[in-house]
Design brief:
This protein is mostly beta strands and 154 residues long. The chain has one helix at 66-69; strands at residues 2-13, 20-31, 38-44, 50-55, 59-60, 79-86, 89-103, 111-126, 130-135, 137-138.
Length: 154
């Protein structure tokens, strides 16, 4: 599979509790083996401590088998748990580990994908992981393929 993410958000939390105010925009592009890219977006207002604008390059990663890719072939309307573990960085060279769980009522449990990306662009000054639950909506056709485009000018 191939993947690319864009995340921009900032927020703060009340000390010693998990309550805070934040806002974030998340875009995700996935391409299963032999398929075309599909792009998704969501806005999240869940607790984030710090600020980040992160754009990964297109990342190649391997799932256990093609059957594991199938649940991720169309995520329009899907609810996902996202955890991003970024390093602190400015401009270029950041590293982020992304884990996404597809939430379903299926007895087989949540389906999961994860990948690591280095050479991220942007800026990241967050404390701890970035975590949120979101419902994904498909991007317009003109934004479906991230190949050859950068969202950040740096």
């Amino acid at each position: 599979m191939q993947a690319k993410i864009f995340f921009g958000g900032e927020g703060s939390k009340i000390p010693w509790v998990d309550f805070g105010l934040s806002v974030a925009l998340f875009k995700l592009w996935l391409r299963p083996s032999g398929g075309a890219f599909r792009g998704y977006t969501t806005a999240s207002n869940q607790g984030l401590l710090g600020a980040a604008i992160i754009e990964t390059p297109i990342v190649d990663f391997v799932m256990r088998d093609l059957e594991d890719e199938e649940p991720f072939s169309n995520l329009h309307g899907a609810t996902v748990d996202v955890t991003m573990s970024p390093t602190v960085f400015v401009r270029n060279g950041g590293i982020v580990k992304v884990k996404m769980s597809l939430l379903t009522n299926d007895a087989m449990g949540a389906k999961e994908l994860s990948f690591v990306s280095d050479d991220c662009k942007g800026i990241c000054a967050t404390v701890g992981d970035i975590r949120f639950t979101a419902t994904l909506l498909q991007l317009p056709d003109e934004e479906r393929d991230p190949s050859g485009s950068n969202l950040l000018p740096i």
